[in-house]
């Protein structure tokens, strides 16, 4: 028997959004090993100017134009988490071919 | 471990796209047949969770930081091929939405941070599962250990890709630096993997794909 899955999914999504909103502003700002390695090799500058994709919505995980850095980070975290949920859910739905055996409304997941 | 543009040579990033593209094609074909109404929202939730936790960099050694990958966690929760799809979405949004990881390096990044942990980590998880006790503890220990190994292997492969792309990166510098620090970051990876899986097992063990094939000890008790 299939038990309801949406309650669990929404709870998991809520936990994720809360982590992105309230914990990510306190995340370490130190560079990652790869960044540090590139800096040590004086290679970082080369990477910076050569991004193939020049239009990220929220560079460095911050909403542009928000004065407070923490608020900008929190908002970018929330937006990103919801965006990833939407895209992954949408893609999975498109890929999945299976439809409910009974018409919608009669089956609760 | 997100490789920016211009770090990898064309043959290396092209190879990354070929391998990751092939794995994604198989994963899509498989999901097309097997993904049910129940798994679809779970995939979305897992991707969102991994994205959120990946933003939480924690300090490691020598003024560096690191973060969770989540690919082995996703493989244990959803199955290895579904995990590849989840990681593909996370990395695509990080690249296009947040400028994290280069677009040319997306295939290589998906291989390192997604496929290594999803397929390799899952195989190791299954192997450990066969030798460790068939308990919840054994299940979680297998997942945690597999996620640690997957992260270290992923960082070593990343170092190999940089070295194969030529100067200035050299394997003798990049490999110990990447693998050494990721051996520590991997502890965080294992802790989060175990914590997240034990939370799901506590409330909805029926949603953990890899748990189905293990004997339900709880049900055997009166």
Could you characterize the architecture of this molecule?
With 109 residues, chain A is mostly helical. Chain A has a domain at 1-28 and 56-98. Chain A is built from 4 helices and no strands. In chain A, α1 (6-22) packs antiparallel against α4. The longest helix of chain A has 27 residues, at 69-95. Chain B has 222 residues and is mostly helical. Chain B has a single domain, classed as Arp2/3 complex 21 kDa subunit ARPC3 (Orthogonal Bundle), CATH 1.10.1760. Chain B has helices at residues 10-34, 39-54, 71-78, 80-98, 106-131, 136-164, 171-203, 217-220; strands spanning 58-59, 65-66. Chain B has a two-stranded antiparallel sheet. In chain B, α4 runs antiparallel to α5 (106-131). The longest helix of chain B is centred in the C-terminal third of the chain and has 33 residues, at 171-203. The model of chain B has no long low-confidence stretch (mean pLDDT 93). At the A-B interface, α1, α2, α3 and α4 of A face α1, α2, β1, β2 and α4 of B.
Overall average pLDDT of chain B: 93
| Element pattern of chain A in H and E | HHHH
Q: CATH topology of chain B, anyone?
A: Arp2/3 complex 21 kDa subunit ARPC3
**Oligomer description:** heterodimer
Q: What distance separates the N and C termini of chain B? A: 48 Å
Tally of discrete structural domains of chain B: 1
Strand order of the largest sheet of chain B: 1-2
Give the SSE order of chain B as H and E letters: HHEEHHHHHH
Query: Number of DSSP helices of chain B?
Result: 8
Main sheet specs of chain A: none
Number of helices of chain A: 4
**Helix percent band of chain B:** over 70%
Helical proportion of chain A?
Answer: 40-55%
Assess the beta-strand content of chain B as a share of residues. Answer: under 5%
Q: Compute the number of strand runs of chain B.
A: 2
The SS-based structural class of chain B is: mainly alpha
Shape of chain A: extended
Global morphology of chain B: globular
């Amino acid at each position: 028997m299939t038990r309801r899955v949406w309650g669990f999914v929404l709870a998991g999504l809520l936990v994720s959004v809360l982590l992105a909103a309230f914990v990510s502003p306190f995340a370490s700002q130190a560079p990652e090993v790869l960044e540090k390695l590139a800096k040590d090799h004086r290679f970082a500058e080369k990477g910076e100017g050569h991004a193939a994709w020049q239009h990220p919505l929220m560079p460095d995980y911050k909403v542009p134009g928000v004065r407070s850095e923490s608020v900008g980070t929190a908002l970018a975290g929330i937006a990103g988490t919801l965006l990833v949920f939407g895209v992954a859910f949408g893609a999975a739905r498109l890929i999945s071919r299976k439809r409910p055996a009974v018409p919608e409304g009669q089956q609760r997941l | 471990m997100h490789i920016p543009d211009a770090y990898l040579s064309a043959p290396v990033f092209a190879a990354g796209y070929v391998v990751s593209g092939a794995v994604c094609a198989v994963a899509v074909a498989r999901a097309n047949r097997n993904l049910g109404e129940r798994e679809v929202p779970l995939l979305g939730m897992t991707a969102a969770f991994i994205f959120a936790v990946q933003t939480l960099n924690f300090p490691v050694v020598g003024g560096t930081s690191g973060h969770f990958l989540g690919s082995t966690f996703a493989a244990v929760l959803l199955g290895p091929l579904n995990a590849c799809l989840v990681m593909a979405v996370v990395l695509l949004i990080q690249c296009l939405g947040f400028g994290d990881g280069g677009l040319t390096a997306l295939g290589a990044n998906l291989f390192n941070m997604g496929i290594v942990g999803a397929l390799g980590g899952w195989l190791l998880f299954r192997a450990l599962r066969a030798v460790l006790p068939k308990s919840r503890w054994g299940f979680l220990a297998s997942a945690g250990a597999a996620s640690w190994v997957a992260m270290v292997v992923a960082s070593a492969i990343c170092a190999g890709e940089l070295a194969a792309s030529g100067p200035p990166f050299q394997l003798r510098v990049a490999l110990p630096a990447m693998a050494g620090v990721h051996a520590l970051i991997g502890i965080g990876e294992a802790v989060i993997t175990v914590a997240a899986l034990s939370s799901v097992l506590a409330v909805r063990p029926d949603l953990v794909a890899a748990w189905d094939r293990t004997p339900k000890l709880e049900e055997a008790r009166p």
